[in-house]
Amino acid sequence: MLQRQQVYLEVLPSQEEGARLEQQPFEDELADFYGRSRNSVGRLWIGILLGFLTNFVCVLCALIHGDIKLYFEAAPSQIPLFIFALVAVCIQSTSEELWCRGFLYQRLHERFPLWVSVAVNGVLFGLLHVFNPGASVLSIVSIVICGLSYSLLRWYTGSIWVAMGIHTGWNFTQNYLFGLPNSGLVSQVSLFHLDAANGVSNLIYDFDFGVEGALPAILMDALVGVLCLILAKKEGRLGELGLNRPQTMALMRRTEA
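Predicted structure:
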């Protein structure tokens, strides 16, 4: 850790080194540095599990608080439909992640410190949902924090696949498992169904927008981001937030040496 902290003061790459780093994909550099691939199907499933757990906690809070009532209604014949739904959600969530935590994150990180990339990602992610049905100030704040946390998760793990997974797991769980609104959009097919006659909106659950528009979602997403920062601090990596990509790559090379 001390070695890593010391080289933060001397991370500006030479012109030749910067040109070489520009030509090598960022994920390849991370794979080289950590000694293993950071993008894999296994990391996708880890993200999906994390998305399920964080969403489940939010739904559980709403159930315990009495804001929603769910009833089970599904048949074995619907299994292929749920598999198709998971694939469709994965494609939709992945497209958002490739744009936000992929292209935008990467382009900004090329020229600006990482914290700028994280901040812009969070704000833009929230703005993308402004016109969703039932959007409110609290729901947009929640999604901004979600964008910040997913960006930090992508940074800490060095893998966009984890971000794809958590996004997929979250959306699939609330929309197709529990039948709740996903950013205001409701699926007609789900494992459980919401008893709409007993739905209540408050700080624990938003009847129109779903769990994403309430306090538990803000806390769970914030927890993901804070845990990334805590773990990064233990590893002496917080200084990376103040570096752009060429500087980060130079730091990794010098730490290896």
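Summary: Residues 79-111 form the longest helix (33 residues).
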